[in-house]
Every structure is written in structure tokens, then in C-alpha cells.
Amino acid sequence: MTKRIFRSILAVSLAVLLASLLLIVGVLHGYFQDSVLADLTIRTSYIAHGIENEGINYLNEDLPGGCRITLVDTDGTVLYDNREDPAQMENHADREEIHEAAVLGQGHAVRRSDTLSEKTIYYALRLSDGTILRVSDTEYSVWRLVIQAMQPVALVLVLAFVLALVLASRVSRQLVQPINALDLNQPGDQAPYEELAPLLGKIRSQNRQIHKQMLDLQQRQEEFTTITENMSEGFLVIDQETRVLSYNSAALRLLRGSVDGPAPDTAFALNREAGFRRCVEDALAGRRREELLEKDSSCRQVIASPVEQDGAIAGAVLVILDVTEKEQRESLRREFTANVSHELKTPLTSILGTAEILQNGLVKPEDVSHFAGNIHREAGRLIGLVNNIIKLSRLDEGGPTTTWETVDLYQTAKSALDRLAAAAEQRQVTLELQGGPAQVHGVPQIVDEILYNLCDNAVVYNRPGGKVCVTVADTDEGARVTVEDTGIGIPQEVQSRVFERFYRADKSHSAGGTGLGLSIVKHGAAYLGAKVTLESEEGKGSTFTLLFPKNSI
Question: Which residues lie across from 546 on neighbouring strands?
Fold first, then answer.
């Protein structure tokens, strides 16, 4: 803006200077012409007076001045000329000033002389005898004077140009300085120039509008960030060039494995798995696509959808779901179904085979009771398996509808050991209960099933002459039950799997078991808010610890 004002002021200054010069030249031109004409008039009158008194011979005298004198007869013939030979000169009757003087007594004209090839001013005066005296002089134009004085004129023009530059620069800076000093964020009510008041008013109005829009955008951005950052699902928006426009931390965690590190520039900087690339490429091609990404123990589902704008694909939106638990549950469901089918098939096959032998009369009368006992034993095993499956299903669905009560762990453990006394005696296993009362808040049925299954597991997987010791204590951390046996122990590599459904660490000691006891313990403890830990050494026995929270009462 300063340059434009500077150029404008400089142009105006130079234009004024040039116009002034032309005006002065024009005024001086008229002044010089009038001055020369007045001088010629005086000279002509002076010479005419001499001719009237002395005749034409007066013209031969040494007349003052350097003007041209011509005497023309009444018919236009040149009688005398002080610069040219009259005999060689043409008739002057048609000359403007001669004709005007013949009619009016005097006349003048300004023209370029054909003889002298100069611009000349002519003044003619009619004498008493009818002849016409004409005096002429060369007109020296102002331009000629300017050209003759070119050096001082050029100096004046240069000085004027420099002065115009300085003044234009200074004035332009002074004009722009108050404008540059304006704070456009808070322009205020006082304008440095009256002409700027409407502009500043519009700026204030626009600032208020922009501020309101920024607050609205900030609020929407905060709402959007709050929503997306609290999503467990990953959210990713990309443009046609795969540049990342928006994302949340869940997307970084699911695609990159960590929320730390620099912000991603492109989608492929987050993940380069083949399935992810196919999702991005298909979405940017206008097709919706879903892919399952499996890596190590994690499983993620990517859903990519194209985004259209004005009929063209502008980008894509990707939603990333962590389906690891879902896939694991689906795998467990399939495994559970297969195990249930297998576990149910085994006793049913035995019952069906024994019943078929009895039906066909292939059993001696004295052996009927043996086969009937086999049927009874397998049926009991089948009922126990079904009951355990029902218990697990109830725990998966949120537990039984029984109300919570205060339960004494010591009395519950004593009841479980009493019911296992016969089985322990048969296996030559000694049962022992230590500690004292410890009360928790829970469902009595679930607490009993947990303790019974832990003790039953310790008896079943013990060795002849072994021992099972149950210790109940009320500690600072909470009520604790420890079930310790001197059995076969559990190998280190399979300890993490013993709580899985139908899993048995030692197949040789699985007779009569369902493989669901420890799974019921795990789910029941989780339902009650308790924690189960295992310490075991192969060949030396196992110790299961059940710890209830301190505020469980």
C-alpha cells in the first residue's frame, strides 16, 4: 500500500509539474508574441514618419534595430526590402497583412516566412500616398528559449523530481503509519482517518462473528474429541491421498500398538498389513470392505467406507474394532461345544452299550448287578456333568438369583470336607482343617461350590497316603482360604490352562471327573469379586489360594 501511495503522489507531483510547465510556456508564448507586435508597431510608426518627411531615401539611412523593412506599392509590387532584392521578390498584394492594411490602414499577421524559413510577425501600415510600409521580426518561441536554457531547466527539473520523490516517500509513510498501527483484532472506536470508520466497523462486526464461530467450532471439536477419545473403537478419517485428517487414540493403539510417537501423516504409516491396505484401497475406490487383522494374540476388525462429496470420492472413514475377546469366546464356544459333545458321548455310549447287553440277555444273572452298577455310575457321571454345565451357564449369565448373605468360610470348608470324607478314605488321603472363623459377603451356594471343587480336586489328584490341608484365616488383606495337597502337582507349562473348561493336566487321574471343577472355581470367584492363585510343583503337590476383598462383608 505504501508503494501504491508513493507512486500515486509521485505521479500527481510530476503531472502538476509538467502541467505547470506547459501552462507557463503557453502564457509566455502569448506574452512574447504581443510584446513583439507592440514593438513592431512602434518601429513601424517611427519609420513611417521618416518616410512621410524624407521620402523613400529615408530607408537608406542606418535605421536602428535588426527588423526587416519592406515597402510595397499600391498594386503589391515590392519597392524596397532591406534584406532581399525587391526585383526578385513576388507580388505581395495577396499577403494578409498587406491586404488588411490597404483596407483598414493597418494590419498584422504571424506566419512562417517562405523567404526566411522562420516564424515571423508582420505589421503593415498604409502611408498617405497609398503605399504600405511593412515591418517584420522573427518570433523567438518560448520553447526555443527553454532549449537555449536547457542546462538550468534540466537542473530545475531534476531538483523538482528529487523533491517530489522525498515528499512522496515521506507523505506515503505518514499516511500509512496510522493504518499499519491498527490492531485488527481490536480496532477500537477511533479511526485514524474518517474514511476508515466504516471499514473498522465492518472489521469489528466480522471479528465478533468470527469469534462466535470459533467458539462454536471449538465446542464442537471438544465434543467430537470427547466422544472419539472415549470410544474403545478406533476411528480414522483419510483423504483421497491417504493423508490422515482425523483419528483417535484407540486407532493408534489398535493399528500401531502404541499411542506414543509422532502423529501419523498417512494411513499406511499406521499399519501396512495386507488386509488393512485392501480396506484403504477399496474404500478410496468407492467400495465398502471389511477385513479381519490377526497378529500375535490380538484380532482386529477393520470396516472401511468411502466418503463422497459432489459425486466424487473425497476420502474414507475407517472403524477399527478390537474383536480379540469375541474371537476368543467364539473359539472357546466351539471348543466347549466339542468338549461337551465328547464328554456327554462317553457316558452315554457306556450306558447304551451296557443296556444293550442286558437287553439281549447276554449277561449272566449273577453279573447283572455289576452291569447295573456300571449304568448307575455312568448315569451319575452324566448327571454331574450336566449339573456342572448348568452351574457354569448360570455364572456366565450373572450368577444365580439367590440373595447375598454373610457366609462363614470356616464352616463352609468344614461342610465340604465332611462330604468328601468317604472319598478321601477310599483314596487313603487325610483331610485337615486349620484356622478359624472368617466371614464374607456372598452367595452361600457359590461359596460352597468353590470350596467343594477345590477340596475335591485336591483329593482326586492326590496320591495314596497323601494329605489335604485347608486353612481359613481373616487377614488384613481380606478373608483367605488355602487348599494345599501333596498330590502329583501341575507342570509349569500348563498351569495357566488348568482353569479352562474340560482341561485336565493329568489324563490318567481323570476317571470320574468332568474337567469343569476349576473352571467353576474361577467363574464363581470372579462373580464374588475374589481372586484365585495357584502355586504348584510337579511331583510335590499344589496350593490353591482364594482371597476375598476386605470390604466383602
Answer: 481, 532
